[in-house]
Structure formats: structure tokens, C-alpha cells
Amino acid sequence: TDDETQARAADSGAGATAAFQSKTGQGAGLEDVTPERVNTLATEVLTAVHDTIRKHKVTYAEYDALKAWLISVGEDGEWPLFLDVWVEHVVEEVANEDREGTKGSIEGPYYVPNAPELAADATLPMREDESGTALTFQGQVTAVGGAPIPGAKVEIWQADAQGFYSQYAPGIPEWNLRGTVIADEQGRYQIGTLQPAPYQIPTDGSCGKLIAAAGWHAWRPAHLHLKVSAPGCQLITTQLYFPGDPHNEDDIASAVKPELMLDIQPAESGEGNQTTYNFELDPA
Ligand code: MBD
Ligand code: FE
């Protein structure tokens, strides 16, 4: 829609910053990290910066460019976007290195908790004229080893066919293409949705300016975001991808894994596509 094409970096940035701030104060502030860890980590990061400056003989012009850019990231509300695109994938790698079940991937900046609950055979909330190829996404949640998990929770959120997320771009209904699906007594779910478009980092904000200045590209491949959980199991945050997307190989957020590639088939119903992906949860 016209509203969507007028989405601005400042809108999604301000939204993502406010959403993240509502999460801090719940065990995610500097006071929740021990002084020993703060000292070690801050010292090592600063030393790496100092080493880079010496190695490349960074000039005052470059130092001032950095200062101006860092200030603008905050002004644009793009710290969540910057960190989730260029840093989170390594945090995820470390956090989930011992898991045996489904591979994780980054959460990114656009998750919203408490999306409306839907029964196991669900259709995600969408506009009457929502554009895009229909997709039936189905599967089963089991524990590692294969035991089905009745009533497992499958939270899903995704961009629309223009690459925009509800609550982070203007003119989209609040819970569009977001839902909390409760699996049936065998842990199975079937979710009617639409194939999302690839996502382009806003070009008019600080992250876009960095991308342009460095000669990078601004794209993530099309993806579905998921959080799958059940009592007694570890919640997994992950993403699923579509074969053939040109950006599966060069995701700006480095968040694609081969295990997270969907197998897309023409729908048996004849309308759009279908795909099956099963989740295996590690014990808590
Ligand atoms: C996204 O949709 C996303 O998933 C990430 C990680 C960063 C920016 C936009
Ligand atoms: Fe995303």
C-alpha cells in the first residue's frame, strides 16, 4: 500500500527502540552484569578498537565521522537494528552451541510478545486484500528423541509481501501476520499465511548510510521468524528460509543456516505453496 512505501527508518527505529526498552529493567540492564564481566568485556572491546586505530592509522577526520555516525544511530533509534544485524548472530551462536534440537537464529528487532492465540489449524491475521503467494506451513513439535509435545506454543511473525512488519511500519493492522499458535494433542500445527518478501534495511537511516558508505548491500533473504516453546523445554528462537532466494548466501544479518531451509512444494489444495518443518526442543 502507499502507507507502506512511505515507511521511514525513524518510524521502525523508534518503535524497535521503545519495544526493547520495555524489556530492559527485567534483568537486561548493566546492573545485571557482574563488575568482573563488565571490566573484562569492556576492556577487550576497547583494546580491539585501539588496535584497529593503530593498525590503520585512523585520522581525526575518520574519528569525527565515526563520532557523528554513532550519535546518529541513537537519534534514528537504530541501535536495535544495528546490533541485531551485525552482532546478534554471534551471541546466538554462543548461546545455542550445546543444543541438540532445532537450530536457532537471531530474534531481530521486530518480535512483539503476546500475539493473539490461535488454535492448531490457524490462519494468521491478515488484511482482506493481503497480497502474496499463499503458504501453508505445517509440522510437529517434539522433544529431542521424538516424543510429541501436546500444546506446544509456536509463535510466528513475519514481513508482508512488501517486506514490512506490523507495528514497525505505518498503516498495517496491529497483529498482521503475527500469531501464537497452540499445537494440538500430537504437537502438530498447520498455519495459513503468505510468503514474505525479502527485507531491505531502511536506506534512509544510519544503518543504511553505513551500508552505502561501505559499499555493502542492504538485504536479508525472505524469512519466517519463530519462537517455539513448551513447559520443561528450552524455548528456541529461530528463522526459516526459502530456497532460491538470492540473499540466502549473503544475508546482511548472517543469520541463515542450511538446517533452516524450507522445502517449498505446490499446495495439495491447489492454492499457493505448502511446506513442512518439524521442531525438536531440548530439555530445560
Ligand atoms: C529483520 O526482519 C530481521 O529479521 C533482522 C534480523 C534485522 C532486520 C530486519
Ligand atoms: Fe525479520
Automatic annotation (TrEMBL):
Question: Which GO MF terms does the UniProt record name?
Answer: catechol 1,2-dioxygenase activity
According to the record, the residues making up region (Disordered) are 1-32
Give the compositionally biased regions (Low complexity): 7-19
- What is the required cofactor set for this protein? Fe(3+)
Q: Tell me the InterPro entries matching this sequence.
A: 1_2-CTD_multi_dom (IPR043029), Catechol_dOase_N (IPR007535), Cchol_dOase_actb (IPR012800), Intradiol_dOase_C (IPR000627), Intradiol_dOase_core (IPR015889), Intradiol_RC_Dioxygenase (IPR050770)
- Recite the UniProt keywords alphabetically: Dioxygenase, Iron, Metal-binding, Oxidoreductase
Could you tell me which Pfam families the record lists for this protein? Dioxygenase_C, Dioxygenase_N
- Magnesium: is it a keyword of this entry? no
Concerning its family, UniProt says: Belongs to the intradiol ring-cleavage dioxygenase family.
Q: What is this protein called?
A: Catechol 1,2-dioxygenase
Q: Which gene encodes it?
A: catA
